[in-house]
Amino acid sequence: MNGTMTESIHTAGAHDDHAHHGPEKGLKRWLFTTNHKDIGTLYLFFSLLMLFVGGFMALIIRVELFEPGKVLVNPEYFNQMTTMHGLIMVFGVIMPAMAGLANWMIPMMIGAPDMALPRLNNWSFLAFTFCF
Asked: Which of 9, 49, 53, 57 has the smallest number of Cβ neighbours within 10 A?
């Protein structure tokens, strides 16, 4: 009887290796993810990066306007940067932040396990960042 107990304990412990479960590691996790929270995080990080880029442009614009008559950058470059600042803040900060929050929150609010088309959701983020 002792041998059968040892044998049953040994066979039960043999199937407890769950090391292959969980998300991928490294860059592959973020490029090929279908998890709505990871995709939302990618959108939010991209939005934060663009916030810094647009904020730097705003800083240069403010420095140029700080003292009347002083020219730090070419006036044509100043006009281009003002336009780019507005575009980056709208299409690079606000829109990805809203998409990221939607990816994070909507599946949890409606009780869905994931987004409707998770692979398309991931590829739409990658296309968005490469086209930006």
From this structure: 9
On whether residue 116 sits in a domain, the answer given is: yes
Is 58 a domain residue?
yes
| Residues 39 and 121 sit within 8 Å (Cβ to Cβ) | yes
For residue 2, the tally of other CB atoms under 10 A from its CB is: 6
Residue 13, Cα to own-chain centre: how many angstroms? 39
Question: Quick check: is 88 in a domain?
Answer: yes
**Model pTM score:** 0.74
CA separation for the pair 41, 66 (Å, rounded): 36
pLDDT 10s digits, 3-28:
555 555 555 555 555 556 666 788 88
On whether the CB atoms of residues 50 and 93 are closer than 8 A, the answer is yes
* Cβ-proximal residues to 46 (8 Å cutoff; 6+ apart), any chain: 92, 96, 100, 125, 128, 129
**Cα–Cα dist 70/62, whole Å:** 12
